[in-house]
């Protein structure tokens, strides 16, 4: 008979390495958990969900994800539609970067300043009516200075009007999978229909970093001078958190103070979104606290590389007696550091397999779990083709099965 084999592996303390792949961590959260991973004391807020148990967060909406694995480290109202204020300028700049990458726009290309752009209120780059401004300077004006006027110059230069540009933002958002975002302008100016979620903002930030490595460094510029006015980048993480290199702040009366930020240390990158904070100081302190918590309490664990042979599985009536069982991709998990000693791995597969076996065919699975660790099931694949033996060659194997009652 075919045996169902289960092999048990011990703790994975020796398998820690850099995150090189993108499979996500099992994100279920235990109903009860210790507070070892709780962040330091701070003004009371309602709790956010984390794999370590609830953590108080002052922001109305919050989300922290691991860039490489997509694992959710912390979330609070992450799918609640909210006014994103100037954080929606991330989409404005995504469209600009996409046009640059496609060769439809040039950094040294000059765009005209309309009266509408010149009169625009809120945060400003201080463009002058009738001026011709390079796309590169306008990008600085949006990212560093959060200039609403610069956004309109770019929108009108690309689409002819801000209304048409907002439609382009919506089309781009749908293509990127931003399922809960609606854009009505290029600036984040208050509008009851202009909405995003923390999860969509994190997705957008990840795509900016992933899709535009040549342009992403714009977000790490600390200050910009235009029209004899120097303005500092409002992103507090750049000055407060090691490895921080972007992205964008936002604020309106309705939204409160918000930030979509990212930091990279070694091979790990974390993306953070917070919104609905009461002040600039609260935004700076909360974002720093949560980013440090994410790096301190979690680590990347490499279970195996793409072509590592995890097990040799017997094959019945095949041209080869065994086939390597592989993962087919690097498997990297983002896990709380305190879980490492509890982590266990089990392999489950039927043995022997019956030929033919196709390369890439699922032939088993890996179960990752342990005490207090949510279970994760990972499909395992055949690492090679195994053809079925010809009729004459099969006779000895069939006779062996008849005589000895075993195929493996």
Task: Provide a brief overview of the structure.
With 408 residues, this protein is an alpha+beta fold. Helices cover 25% and strands 29% of the residues.
Could you please describe the fold and organization of this structure?
The chain is of the alpha+beta class. The chain has 2 domains: 3-20 and 305-404, Peptidoglycan synthesis regulatory factor (PBP3), Domain 2 (Sandwich); 47-300, Beta-lactamase (3-Layer(aba) Sandwich), CATH 3.40.710. It has helices at residues 89-101, 115-119, 135-143, 148-159, 162-176, 198-211, 237-240, 280-297, 391-404; strands spanning 3-9, 47-48, 55-56, 61-66, 72-76, 110-112, 132-134, 223-226, 229-232, 244-252, 256-265, 268-277, 298-304, 311-316, 322-326, 331-336, 344-351, 353-354, 362-370, 373-382. The chain has a 7-stranded mixed beta sheet with strand order 1-17-19-20-15-14-18, with no helix packed on it. The protein has a 5-stranded antiparallel beta sheet with strand order 5-4-12-11-10, with helices on both faces. The protein has a two-stranded antiparallel sheet with strand order 2-3. Strand 2 and strand 3 (55-56) form a beta hairpin. Helix 3 crosses helix 4 (148-159). It is elongated and about 80 Å long. Mean pLDDT is 87; it is low at 7-44.
Helix and strand content put the structural class at alpha+beta
Main β-sheet description: 7 strands, mixed
* Overall radius of gyration: 27 Å
SSE order, one letter for each helix or strand: EEEEEHEHEHHHHEEHEEEHEEEEEEEEH
CATH-assigned homologous superfamily of the largest domain: DD-peptidase/beta-lactamase superfamily
Total domains: 2
Global morphology: elongated
Beta-strand share of residues: 25-35%
The CATH architecture of the largest domain can be given as 3-Layer(aba) Sandwich
Distance between the termini: 9 Å
Are there runs of 5+ residues with pLDDT below 50, and where?
7-44
CATH topology value of the largest domain: Beta-lactamase
């Amino acid at each position: 008979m075919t045996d169902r084999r289960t092999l048990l592996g011990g703790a994975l303390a020796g398998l820690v390495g850099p995150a090189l792949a993108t499979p996500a961590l099992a994100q279920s959260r235990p109903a009860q958990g210790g507070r070892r991973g709780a962040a330091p004391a701070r003004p009371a807020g309602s709790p956010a969900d984390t794999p370590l148990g609830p953590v108080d967060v002052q922001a109305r909406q919050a989300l922290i994800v691991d860039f490489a694995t997509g694992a959710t480290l912390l979330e609070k109202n992450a799918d609640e539609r909210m006014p994103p204020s100037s954080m929606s300028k991330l989409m404005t700049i995504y469209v600009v970067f996409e046009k640059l990458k496609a060769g439809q726009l040039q950094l040294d290309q000059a765009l005209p300043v309309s009266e509408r752009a010149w009169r625009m209120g809120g945060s400003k780059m201080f463009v002058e009516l009738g001026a011709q401004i390079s796309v590169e300077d306008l990008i600085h004006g949006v990212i560093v200075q959060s200039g609403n006027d610069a956004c309109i110059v770019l929108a009108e230069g690309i689409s002819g009007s801000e209304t048409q540009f907002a439609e382009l933002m919506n089309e781009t958002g749908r293509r990127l999978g931003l399922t809960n975002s609606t854009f009505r302008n290029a600036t984040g100016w208050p509008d009851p229909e202009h909405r995003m979620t923390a999860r969509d903002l994190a997705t957008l930030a990840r795509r900016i970093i992933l899709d535009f490595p040549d342009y992403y460094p714009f977000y790490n510029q600390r200050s910009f001078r235009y029209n004899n006015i120097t303005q500092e980048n409002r992103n507090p993480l750049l000055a407060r958190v090691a490895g921080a290199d972007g992205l964008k702040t936002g604020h309106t009366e309705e939204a409160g103070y918000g930030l979509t930020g990212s930091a990279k240390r070694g091979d790990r990158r974390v993306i953070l979104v917070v919104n609905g904070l009461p002040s600039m100081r609260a935004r700076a302190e909360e974002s720093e606290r949560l980013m440090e918590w994410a790096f301190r309490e979690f680590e990347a664990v490499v279970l195996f590389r793409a072509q590592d042979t995890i097990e040799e599985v017997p094959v019945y009536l095949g041209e080869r007696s065994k086939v390597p069982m592989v993962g087919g991709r690097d498997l990297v998990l983002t896990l709380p550091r305190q879980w490492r000693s509890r982590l266990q791995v089990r392999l489950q597969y039927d043995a022997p397999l019956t030929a033919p076996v196709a390369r890439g065919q699922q032939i088993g699975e890996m179960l990752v779990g342990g005490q207090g660790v949510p279970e994760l099931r990972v499909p395992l694949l055949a690492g090679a083709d195994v053809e079925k033996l010809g009729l004459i060659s099969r006779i000895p194997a069939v006779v062996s099965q008849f005589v000895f009652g075993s195929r493996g």
